[in-house]
């Protein structure tokens, strides 16, 4: 019966075989470089990969095989055919896993792999049940098996003996992969040349048809993806191994010169031992490192002075004794003896030519870390070993200290921010598998700064250390307690309930326990101290957020606890987070408001009892491009916190002075004064007086036309500094007004000492004077007191005729409010003045109505 072949699929099958071979050989190379379970893992992955390559190549190759009759395969037998390929590959790699690979082992591995390739092929062919049965040409049958074994052997020789013909590593890999791929595909297609299918044959297989080219492409893509992943894994492991080797090399750089000198001296000594024993002795005895020599039975034949000093033995006490009995700790002696016996029998040791770190034992039984390098040589017909040992106790201490400095807080010994972030990142990854909730508690000590300021930082440090101990007592061993810095601590509660409600309850119970424990009195040196915490809690699960977002949420919840009165705990509230983010965005926008001209200075007129305009108060507004008009109460507080108030305050001062200069040059307005509000941060600047003086000089205006409005809280916060600055400015003609008088805590004793010229009655009292007897009495008292102190009085927030009439009857002679005009731009204000000028008046006069005529 005629057989037809799909050449494209044949080429694809060869590519699969070569790619799989390359991946498997790459894993075999990693297997030989790794140790222990890692080496086994690479062996298993390499065996599976090669088995998969053999099976995939056969599968695709059979799809390239066409007969003029429908074909179907026995599915269990088809799948079973992959087992001998993988088993043979595993066995072959196992044979090659030894440190030293002999030609015999290479041949055995090639034999196993060739047998696996052949077994897989002919079991797979058996899945194609034909009637009459398929027959094979015996010669070609034997040739196909020979090709599989010979090509596998040649491929392994390329890999493990290629360096003998000075082939670069990548060339050996390429040739080995190509030959192994040809072993797989060559065996298959050679065997298929010996297949005989009688005319009229019928396929007796099951209902599994695999004659679709699309299936070949899918199997090939899956296999190639597997191979690609395997290559990436091997490349990553090789890169990681190189990185680790480089790191170790750098760590040992400080000691390398001395080690090289000792090793070179020892090598020279061993080479010429029979002729220059005296020279060898001087080198050995003068070496700073410990040098010990053992015979083939492990008995010590040399023990230099450095070894005597390090281990506490005299040379004559240990010569002839077993090396393990002298230096190796009890727990490790059995393994050491077994390794030495293996070396005596095979001449091979996993320790030769390497530097290893292990524990040694001194004569007094104390164990300590050493670095050991062993060299073997032949001497007078005997196999000898020389060990170079160095005490690395100090280096280990330094490494431990460096690790502590990098990952632990030096004061409390708790994990620091870096280690906390690493653990959180690890938890966010692991939570996916465990499907549990966790919680983060952000803890801040209330009023800790007061303790530092009054008692000193050393006392504050003692409190932080005690807090750390108390926090550790509140949580489980698997939980994490960390210090972020200052008085901020973080607790991570792991593996809480998988139900969010139960997990929240568990977190709250621990949070309350922490709050109560930290709220207990502290005995610090000779006094009792009471401290409370504010605690913010944020629940989290798997990778739903980043570490930064998680910490930010817990921090936000902590500030909610602060705002709730301290000594409490709060869970994260998304609404509060949104509010903070909106405020942060507004603060960012404010930084550009000055530069882009978004800040505006409006003027609200002030009038006397004759309805004459005597001046104005400058009021700042922010015309936000997106949010519209923003009042000072919405942005001044965070401008104070961020110090943006300083450039804003200077801008207000300069804009007001520019307006005064314009008025000063106009006969109609030259008698007007202008009041500006001064913030606390602006007033507390050390050079505030100089700023005012230089600005006045810059615009060349009369100082007595400028009035600075100060709040009670600002003035009385530091009364001495306030009086000094106010007097300096009053001396040059600046006027001062006490803003919002009656709403703070003004002291009458200090009030009479302040160089004020005016008291401003707050709008909260003016609003209800027509209907509230208490407000009437307060306003009358303020006016009477101001007159007795010789101060002017102005009432703000005047909106009705009734309010105005009451104020006039009570003796108030200056007014400000919407009854006269709302705050308007400087251009509009000047227009109002020009419209209201009466040639017989000293000041422009106005009329008023409850509807605020000037709008």
Give an overview of the whole structure.
The structure is a single chain. Strand 13 (480-485) and strand 14 (488-493) form a beta hairpin. The chain contains 32 helices and 27 strands. By secondary structure, it is of the alpha/beta class. The strands form 7 sheets. The protein has an 8-stranded mixed beta barrel with strand order 19-20-22-23-24-25-26-27, surrounded by 4 helices. Strands 8-7-11-10-9 form a 5-stranded antiparallel sheet. It has a 5-stranded mixed sheet with strand order 13-14-12-17-18, with helices on both faces.
- Count of distinct strands: 27
Strand order of the main beta sheet, please? Answer: 19-20-22-23-24-25-26-27
Q: Note the main sheet.
A: 8 strands, mixed, barrel
Radius of gyration computed on alpha carbons: 45 Å
Question: What order do the helices and strands come in, and which of them pair?
Answer:
Layout: E1 4-5, H1 7-33, H2 36-63, E2 65-66, H3 75-80, H4 82-95, H5 103-126, E3 130-131, E4 135-136, H6 138-161, H7 169-193, E5 195-196, E6 202-203, H8 213-251, H9 253-271, H10 277-286, E7 290-294, E8 300-303, H11 305-311, H12 315-318, H13 323-327, H14 333-346, E9 355-361, E10 367-379, E11 382-391, H15 393-407, H16 417-434, E12 438-445, H17 448-455, H18 457-474, E13 480-485, E14 488-493, H19 500-518, E15 522-524, E16 527-529, E17 533-540, H20 547-563, E18 569-571, H21 574-593, E19 599-608, E20 613-624, E21 628-630, H22 632-641, H23 645-664, E22 673-677, H24 680-683, H25 688-699, E23 706-711, H26 712-717, H27 719-731, E24 735-741, H28 748-751, E25 758-761, H29 763-766, H30 773-788, E26 792-796, H31 801-809, E27 814-816, H32 826-835
Parallel strand pairs: 17-18, 20-22, 22-23, 23-24, 24-25, 25-26, 26-27
Antiparallel strand pairs: 1-2, 3-6, 4-5, 7-8, 7-11, 9-10, 10-11, 12-14, 12-17, 13-14, 15-16, 19-20, 19-27, 20-21
